[in-house]
């Protein structure tokens, strides 16, 4: 911009320069053109180049951000379990629909081949987008590393809580349950939506989410899953779905839906079509008869 500024300064002394017989005006093609006009044209050209440069940098940054989001989305898809799993005595269905490219809901379904038990850990981190996706990856890694030495739901929540402590605004609701081969369930909850047993919410005490307090106490309860029983874990994105008129889907509709829905996909689709506002995740576990050869 320096040449344009210099010419603009020179144009301020046009009268004095004319007295000194220094030429400050030209007439190309019969048009009067002075140093001030040239300076203005140069300034406009420089401003246009600077805006173009900023635009190109912005486009490049957006492309890099889009690439980061796509890679984070691919990583999240890799760490999610398959939609349907069958083990002796249990059929597990899952459905996950993020509100954005990268969601904040997470779950892991881990069968134990040694004793025939099944461990499910599901939760919802604060926030959305890449930050939430990074926190989800951290928690999934912690779940996997903890389950290598313990399948106790309470111990898993305590380990996840320690992992989040000291991280700014890193909080998550989480639920961990272990289903033994005989159907006995041990359930630990850290502020997550309680599961539904045959369409009715399981009554349990509330507790703080993960990352709030170092020595937080989490709710623990035990019950048995009988043959034919269906246990459904849902995220708050279903109850918080909102239609065009601002009406919430609500927990009463959730109960009615779970009494009639035949699959996890049907539950997720109903909430999404109502008006998705947050991540939606559904895990349905049905206890079946164990084959005689199992």
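Q: What amino acid sequence fits the structure above?
A:
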């Amino acid at each position: 911009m320096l040449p344009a500024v210099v010419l603009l300064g020179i144009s301020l002394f046009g009268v004095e320069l004319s007295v000194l017989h220094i030429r400050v005006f030209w007439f190309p093609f019969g048009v009067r053109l002075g140093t001030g006009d040239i300076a203005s044209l140069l300034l406009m050209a420089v401003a246009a180049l600077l805006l173009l440069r900023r635009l190109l940098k912005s486009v490049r940054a957006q492309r890099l951000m889009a690439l980061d989001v796509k890679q984070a989305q691919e990583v999240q898809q890799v760490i999610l379990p398959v939609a349907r799993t069958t083990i002796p005595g249990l059929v597990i269905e899952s459905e996950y629909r993020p509100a954005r490219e990268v969601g904040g809901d997470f779950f892991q379904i881990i069968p134990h081949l040694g004793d025939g038990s099944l461990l499910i850990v599901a939760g919802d981190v604060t926030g959305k987008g890449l930050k939430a996706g990074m926190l989800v990856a951290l928690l999934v890694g912690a779940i996997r590393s903890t389950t290598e030495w313990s399948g106790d739901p309470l111990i898993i929540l305590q380990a996840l809580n320690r992992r989040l402590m000291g991280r700014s605004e890193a909080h998550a609701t989480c639920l961990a349950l272990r289903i033994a081969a005989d159907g006995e369930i041990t359930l630990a909850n850290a502020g997550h939506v309680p599961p539904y047993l045959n369409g009715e919410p399981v009554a349990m005490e509330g507790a703080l989410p993960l990352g709030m307090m170092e020595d937080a106490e989490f709710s623990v309860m035990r019950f048995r899953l009988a043959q034919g029983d269906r246990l459904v874990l849902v995220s708050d994105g279903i109850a918080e779905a909102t239609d065009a008129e601002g009406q919430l889907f609500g927990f009463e509709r959730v109960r009615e839906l779970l009494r009639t829905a035949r699959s996890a996909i049907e539950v997720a689709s109903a909430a999404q079509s109502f008006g998705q506002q947050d991540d939606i995740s559904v895990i349905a576990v049905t206890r079946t008869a164990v084959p005689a050869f199992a």
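Q: And what stands out in the fold?
A: The chain has a mean pLDDT of 84.
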